[in-house]
Design goal:
mainly alpha
Length: 109
């Protein structure tokens, strides 16, 4: 074996060892997660009080939403009817425009 081949083999073995050690370190590395609390935790009674207050607030919001929906639903039908009437009027205007164009062509010839 030549000196170059020996050096190459030794370097390959060193690279293999380094790669193996790095892989082992990465596989066995653990992430440490710490959790800390800010402030003072509530006791069960305070939590239940807040829970009741939130539930009451949600019920009020849902009641308002239901009232708004009851007011909006009839408007939806009226808007649909207005849209249909507008389309009919637009079609009629297009027909009148076409008739006027034909009249103008007849009178100018």
């Amino acid at each position: 074996m030549t000196t170059l081949q020996i050096v190459s083999t030794v370097l390959s073995m060193i690279c293999l060892v380094i790669t193996t050690v790095l892989a082992w370190v990465m596989l066995n590395k653990t992430n440490k997660t710490e959790v800390s609390f800010m402030g003072v935790p509530l006791d069960k009674r305070d939590f239940e009080k807040h829970e009741r207050e939130d539930k009451e607030e949600h019920n009020k919001i849902f009641a308002r939403l239901d009232a708004m929906q009851a007011r909006i639903n009839p408007l939806e039908g009226e808007i649909r009817a207005m849209r249909e009437a507008s389309e009919i009027n637009n079609n009629r205007l297009l027909q009148i425009d076409a008739k006027m164009d034909r009249l103008i062509e007849r009178t100018s010839s």
